[in-house]
Amino acid sequence: MNVALVSLCENSENKALYFPIGLLTISDILDDIGIINRIIDINRLERIDDFRSSILNEIQCMKYDFVGFYTRCDIFPYVLSISKEIKKVNKNVSIFLGGPEASAMPIKYLQKFDFIDMIFVGESEVTIREYFSAIAKKQKTPHIRGLAYRKGNDIIYEYRDELISNLDTLSILNYKKLIDYDMSPLPVEIGRGCPYNCIFCSTSIFWKRKYRFKSAKRIVIEIKKYIDEYNIHDFYFIHDNILAGKDNILSLCEEIMHNEIDISWECSGRIDNIDNESIALMKNAGCKSLYFGIETGSPNMQTVIGKRLDISRISSKLNIMDKYDLNCILSFIIGFPNETLEDVTQTFKVAILSKQYKCVSYVQFHHLTVNTGTKLYDENCEKLIKNKGLRNLSDQVRSATGRLFNESEQEMIERNANLFPSFHLLPFGQSSFNNLSALATHLMYIANSFPQPIFELGLHDADIYKDTIVFLAKALEGSCVVSQINHQILFQLIKKHYLNDNQNGLKDILLAVLIHERMYLRESELRSGSTDNTILLDDITYKIDMLTIISRFKYDPFMCTYPEHCVYYLFYKNGNTINHYKCSRVHSQILKEIKKGNTVEQISTKCSLPKIIVRKIVMEFVNIGVLNRNR
Questions:
Q1: Residue 140, SS3?
Q2: 73-90 pLDDT, tens per residue?
Q3: CA-to-CA distance for 231 and 221, rounded, in angstroms?
Q4: pLDDT, tens digit, for every residue of 127-185?
Q5: What is the 3-state secondary structure (H, E, C) of 435-491?
Q6: How far apart are CA 287 and CA 267, in angstroms?
Q7: What gap in Å lies between CA 609 and CA 604, rounded to an integer?
Q8: What is the pTM of this model?
Q9: Are 389 and 480 a contacting pair, CB within 8 Å?
């Protein structure tokens, strides 16, 4: 008997989140039973022409008896498409599914797709061991709770209620099967389940809201083993909500420190669960980063979606993160049913304000994904629609890594919205927002690239947050991909709130400043400077707080580029004003070399320029006051 275990999840920037740890667990169980098996991970296959062909070729060459797929909403259409092709080639192979997507509606999926033979539902270690133990002994397959399967024309399924009560009984994983994999950070499952009940999240369904944690001693034993065997010291602690059980995380940190283990690790949790005690201990035990799902900045929507975070307490929690110099990522969602412009505005404002804390390295914006089996799905599965702002579905139906679906997969998704809800949208309360996916993408770009200008403008006029969203929504009307709009949006915001309509030449200058901030704002500590509310450009004084923004930059003077026109601007302070000087790339190169202390002769050689040109440009800098004549 030969079993293939297939993962189609491609790695993102955080490799640990897409590591096939579930399939590795199943593989170890099959090893223990004595069944030959192999993990087929899309990230480790040599590609033929596309990933489907690669998977099919691998399976056909080995002639497996069983082929199992891990399922998640974004890859589920691929799983079904490839499974169907496998059955066409070999109708005797048994195809089984597991994971959150297949577990959400096992009976419906078996009824709809006759090429799927069985589904292991939910937490499946016990179910898989029972089933394959019987198969290995050539016994008649018993009726097993937690397994949905075909029997003649009937679908048989009995719910398995109990979960594994003691996670310490799980085997320590054998990562040597994936030894050629990039295993840093190495994912280590330290527990399962979240006790909360957000209406959009499938975690509470899959783990039945039962919070469990491995013992601290067991986790440390695993960590030591991985350090000894793989020389890895960077880990990602996998748990749906690591902070929900404070005593557990404190015990783990104390055990790590007691054993003097030198590691770094990341995790995820709820921001309202942190306090000084837990974060201080986590920092001392090697924690370097946390992921927090905020979801919405609207107190009303927090209640509607069942998250129930107290938005007013986020700043105090971020202060704790800053105090202990820990990094964090915040995640936000737009597109909830009955969400208004005011709700989205509050969310965007919370994101911008959060970016003022040094601990917040990144904020994410997502449009709402409807997951099967959730309360959100149950209440809205008949209301699912395509995104009106898209030219065709192929703009929308992609996996997390951007792979497009083929025609048959796309047709399957379009015809079965209730089976593939994550590729559809719900009617949004703000009817003018036709392209939520693109709106979320651009809000995320602006929040991460230009948090300081938005914040500075917001200090004078709170409407800046709403205007950002309205301007973006208008720019995105009827289009899926809008290039180079974010700088234009920012200029509109600045112009509306501070500038007159007929000021020539200011657009390029302001855009250059904004580009510079995106490049350098978080490279160093923010510099303090004058708060004079005027700025002098082209001998015109504007009443605008751009001086505060500019004075925060590391470099003074500094050079900015506006790419569309290949224009360089040199900004420099003159008393309490900021002057600018329009120049070229050569000016930029020479100024950098001067700041390094190089002479005219050295600059001439290094930049391959005649000395006369170098001297001419140096004198330009002297004449405008950027350089001292004696220098």
A1: coil
A2: 889 999 999 999 999 989
A3: 15
A4: 999 999 999 988 877 789 999 999 888 999 998 888 999 999 999 998 888 766 567 78
A5: CHHHHHHHHHHHHHHCHHHHHHHHHHCCHHHHHHHHHHHHHCCCCCCCCCCHHHHHH
A6: 8
A7: 5
A8: 0.79
A9: yes
